[in-house]
Amino acid sequence: MQKVFVMSHPVAFDPSTLKYNEAGLIPAIAQDEVSGEVLMMAWMNAQAIEKTLETGRVTYWSRSRQSFWIKGETSGHVQELVDFRIDCDRDCLLVLVRQTGAACHTNRRTCFYTAVRDGAETELMAPMA
Amino acid sequence: MQKVFVMSHPVAFDPSTLKYNEAGLIPAIAQDEVSGEVLMMAWMNAQAIEKTLETGRVTYWSRSRQSFWIKGETSGHVQELVDFRIDCDRDCLLVLVRQTGAACHTNRRTCFYTAVRDGAETELMAPMA
């Protein structure tokens, strides 16, 4: 979805060189690689990053369950990794994904379905059929 | 950039109803409303959210400087707010913006200019001229 120019010689990627918070986590934004829609934000630790890159299946760390969360493992709403990006400060990730079905647990395509307009919350989309 | 269907009666937005981390902050993803490009991720507190909505100029909380950060105030690379979104868990924000110039302090359009491909870090774009 974006023109790509390779500007430098590649260096080996080491997840330990990223900046994690005090819980060892880094935010990961998932973006639909076709529509460009921002689907969700969740957290990864170094091992989840390794699993994501190794398997091509986006894998987060669930803070509530304190376990790996292979996106779509139970729902079938998998995220196939298309590209893995790091920000300038190395403290945030962007994963471009091929999303099956809904990214949101409410069965909406994206988690960001509520807008604030004229001071009021407005729902932008219904759950998928 | 996305079809919008209003599904419910609007309710008044109150920033205190969002979920903040232990430092009183919530992550905010900035997306270019024209290209759909994810530009950056930074943090807001409740007051930064109020300022953003009141002024239409995206305002973060700088963790390093511990002060408000009106994006572009010194660089001129302002972010004009186009739409303000909340995720399902109310613990992450998405701001659609009209971005002047580079969003990244390295003078690149986006902070996410590094990709990991075949185990190597690869720069995708050069600083803007």
From TrEMBL, chains A, B:
Cofactor stoichiometry and binding remark: Binds 1 Mg(2+) ion per subunit. Binds 1 zinc ion per subunit.
**Protein location:** Cytoplasm
What are the record keywords, sorted?
Amino-acid biosynthesis, Cytoplasm, Histidine biosynthesis, Hydrolase, Magnesium, Metal-binding, Zinc
Q: Which residues bind Mg(2+)?
A: D87, D89, D91
- Residues binding Zn(2+): C88, C104, C111
Query: Pfam families, from UniProt?
Result: PRA-CH (PF01502)
E.C. no: 3.5.4.19
What family is this protein classified in?
A: Belongs to the PRA-CH family.
The entry's function note states: Catalyzes the hydrolysis of the adenine ring of phosphoribosyl-AMP.
Q: What is this protein called?
A: Phosphoribosyl-AMP cyclohydrolase
Q: Which organism is it from?
A: Ruegeria atlantica
